[in-house]
Amino acid sequence: xxxxxxxxxxxxxxxxxLKIPPDFExxxxxxxxxxxxxxxxxxxxxCLELLEREERDYDDKLAWLQRELDIGIAEIKRGEGIExxxxxxxxxxxxxxxxxx
Length: 101
Fold this sequence. Notes:
Elements: H1 10-14, H2 22-33, H3 40-77, H4 84-99
C-alpha cells in the first residue's frame, strides 16, 4: 500500500498531532535534509510500509510454523515421530535457513 496516495478520512488528513521523541525527529529531519526523502511525510510513509511488510512476514512465518506443527503432530499420531533432540536440531536449522539467523 502506498500511504502517500491512500484514501484517508478527512478528519485524519487535516491534522494528526504526534508526539515524536527527539531522536526520532532528528532521524526524520536528517533523512529529509540529505535529500533521501522529499518530506517528513515521505519518511513516515516509508516507515509504515516497512512495518506492514514486517507484519506480513511475521504472519507468513507464523502460518508456516502452524502448518509444520500440524504435520509433526499428525506424524507422531501415526507413530512416525523422531527423538526430541533431532527434531529440535532440524527445526532450528530450517528456521535459520528461512530467517537468515
